[in-house]
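Something for you to look into today, if you have time. Just paste the record in under my message, thanks.
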Amino acid sequence: MLFDGINDALFIKGNPLDNASSFTIEIIFRPESSANPDNSEQRYIHIRNQTDDVRRILMELRLTADQKWFLDTYIRSEVNNLTLIDSNKTHQTGKWYHAALVYEKGKMRHYVNGVEEGSGEVIFLPIENGQISIGARQNPRSWFKGAIKLIKFTRRSLKPEGFLSFFYQ
């Protein structure tokens, strides 16, 4: 799927992680550079309840002024929330990458090409009656510019050796 960074996205009623207490989300994608200054925060996966945004999962990237990107992931519930982000771990645009968000027993981790780039503790409460957007936030903004080859949802936590490793090895 190609996304133009202006107004392309998929909005799907349903949640592949409905009621999951642990999970792994993997994506193979190619972020592109963008001359649009409003396009520095690009969401490519947003899962939430259909009626409110209290419980949510976000996977996104932040585009730097020199057209590199770094991973940004977020989990929120009524109990607490956590953002994993490290602006020092940048990657080139225009290349294919594998990113993963993993959650199990209060621990959230995210990876780029099998390398852990952030972790922390957060209480995740399963998202019931959920929906997902791919390529933007669900309140249409923060458009993703680039290509998505594959998204995989697993209803358990995986370690890097269980990821779609054929891609980055």
